[in-house]
Amino acid sequence: MVMQVSKRKQKSIDCFSKYVDQHYCAQKFNADSLYNTLMEYCRETDGRPIILSVDDDSAYLVDSILDKLQPYFICANINNQQGEIGRLMNKQVQKELARQSSLAVAQSWAIDFDHGNFELPEGITYPCYVKGLMSYHTLKKYQGRCDSKAELRKKLEKIGREYPCPIIVEEFIEIEQDLGIIGLANGNECVVPGIVELLDSGHGSHKGVSAFGRVRAEVAGEGICERVEQFVKSLNLRGLFNVDLVVSRGQIYFVELNLRYAAYGYAVSRAGVNLPELYIRTVLGQSTAELNCTLMRECYYYNERVASDDRKADFRSAKDVVELRQKADFGLLENIVDMEPYNRFKKDFMLDLIKYRIKKLLRR
Hints:
It is built from twelve helices and 16 strands. The chain is of the alpha+beta class. The longest helix is centred in the last third of the chain and has 24 residues, at 340-363.
């Protein structure tokens, strides 16, 4: 079953999977709409269905009505307390908790807006990096580097006019390596199967999202997975998660915790660890003894959606996208035993590309 939280009622491509037999749509940013739709169509009399969030806005929305949902559904949570996942979507809060777990973090400053007005905190160093303070209700188009106080002020003024969401300004770190750690937490237990190296990232609305990467086991002596496990265990989280890290000058820095399943989770499944199945069996009290918790193979993946949207917006050429696909062992959407989502994606992509080219010509 797919529960889509969206402004549009158009089906997402996931809904065309042969494994999906029902699709419902709730209004985006509307907790009442989500609750009413779940209660009307998804509640069962002989058990509690499991809700798996795959984007930040949905994870926040579910957590905001956790007390109302939990009698009828199994939901990700922190300490079984409503609002805790939402609270932990504040990147300043995350950084402080990471620091307490001995993870290195970049210096940062939070900025809020009052009717579009703001005050620059003292001590900001340049260059710096700007992004949304909260993981939800934010726009990636404002994310980026500023090399001076004047450039930062100009960017913040634009945000204040167009979308005055809380902002975090971070010390700029030259990235040598971009890493993702995906896992499953169940209170004081944690499964972290390996490391995802983000070798190529998207642009525009997909800025920072993996377009191409490698899934691998941790090398002896790295200690990255163990440190992430300790951090996540300290949160008393129950659910799927992923942690973004970067390596700069040999130092590993914590960047962000995402309290939902990551897009590259399918690549981890292809490498031998099915985290959603592990999670479902764990919360249902079923045995997981026959399931893998460590990666069985190394593999390279590419994200068709990110690469194709980059092509539509002229960040990549068609040749660039083909080269990414050729370097990868598989795509995150293409699956020979369940091809309809990928086929629908290709059809929608070509229609969108034609529309984009026509609009571009008309603007000239």
